[in-house]
Amino acid sequence: MIPRAALARNGQRALQWQMRSNNWRCLATAASGSFSYEIGDAGGVKVASRDLPGPTTHLAVVAKAGTRYQPLPGFSEGLEKFSFKNTWKRSALRITRETELLGGEYSSYHSRENLVVGAKFLRDDLPYFAELIGEVISQTKYTAHELHEEVEPNMNFSRKELLGNPLEFAMNSAHGVAFHRGLGNSLHPSSSTPMTKYLNENRLQQYSRVAYAKSNFAVVANGADHQELSKWINEFFTELDQSPPQDFPSTGTESTKYYGGEERIAHDSGNTMVIAFPGSGSATGNSYKPESQVLAALLGGQSNIKWTPGFSLLSKATAAYPQAHTATAHHTYSDAGLLTISMYGNADQIRQASQEVVKAIKSVAAGNVGREEIKKAVAAAKFKALESGQNMNTGIELTGAGLVQGGKAFQIDELGKSIDTVTEDQVKTVAKSLLDGRATVSTVGDLFILPFAEEIGLNV
């Protein structure tokens, strides 16, 4: 008879082996899955899809109609707010009720370059939502009463939300100082913008023909078969112009130019200081510089691990100023980028922390950062880029924008490989170039205490 202790030991070993095998199988499955998009053309419309396993689908139209391309203030947001209102076939109430009955969700938003109109739903309901989105972009009624009673009040709420958030206000200001027009256009019209002078229902309807011309948008889907998606696009996206009408002015198509400078805005709801430098364009364009993303990860500031201050350069440099919250971000656009370092909180501590931020950048430019730090920054930048591309919302917008701007879909596999090739010398070189050029500094809050750019050693 086999002793009970031996049976117990053998059972534990078998269980451990089984768990280990299952883990290996799971890891292999995850690693072998591809997040690449299949691209094509359906009736003159650019189409990209990932047939991810699962019972749901995310479908969206990504139009080159963000604030960079709007001919007049408020047009991008006006189109966004008119999405899923009354069309020539269905009322807004019917659209809402039918979407609820199918358990779906619809949404729209705009960014500096793109206008995204989309829906999430059960996979079998692709025909209905392909028809609905095609109807929304081609047959929306742009009526005066909806503009004045629903669209404009919602635009005012967005404007007030921006004005009440010093951090977003400063970030918006930094884009304006850095790029002037185009990418520098405000995401929301300011309180002093004469909306009645620019915005009316007839002009919005004219602009919708520009924004939703077939050459100006792409249809992107996650969780849909490419052939089936192309079939429904061919059927429901027919009532659209192939190219934008020539009688409507096009703006924002010129190459982006970085200027730099300084802007100071008094605000009594908080203190924020944003320091920005030129960054990298999108990986689908010709101005992509992965070393800018690595530098952003190297500087850091905001901890990724709970209950710890973090070990990035800015986390350590500003550790003595806990009331000055510091974070580095990289904003990527089709032909340009903006590397931003934001500080918000106590005005006195921001004043002191800002000096340490500039010293940290100078230490990178001087080559005083160890190889191990660069290695960690490369891994962090790669993770952030891949996570962003894997995210359904971000991946859809990046892919659609890439197709419209340059005919190339955003492929996260290629992005990870390019970041892996960044060297220590490249990071040092890009940091030095930022200090040699003009910085962008936007300060919002108590201007009596918050410093000027020259006081912390920056050229503007």
Automatic annotation (TrEMBL):
This protein's UniProt keywords: Electron transport, Membrane, Mitochondrion, Mitochondrion inner membrane, Respiratory chain, Transit peptide, Transport
Major subcellular location class: mitochondrion
Domain of life: Eukaryota
SUPFAM superfamilies assigned: LuxS/MPP-like metallohydrolase
The Peptidase M16 C-terminal domain, residue ranges: 199-379
One Pfam family this sequence matches: Peptidase_M16_C
Subcellular location: Mitochondrion inner membrane
Domain Peptidase M16 N-terminal: 47-172
GO cellular component, one term: mitochondrial inner membrane
One GO MF term: metal ion binding
InterPro entries associated with the record: Metalloenz_LuxS/M16 (IPR011249), MPP/UQCRC_Complex (IPR050361), Pept_M16_N (IPR011765), Peptidase_M16_C (IPR007863)
Entry membrane topology: Peripheral membrane protein
Similarity comment text for this entry: Belongs to the peptidase M16 family. UQCRC2/QCR2 subfamily.
Protein name, as recorded: Cytochrome b-c1 complex subunit 2, mitochondrial
Organism lineage string: Eukaryota, Fungi, Dikarya, Ascomycota, Pezizomycotina
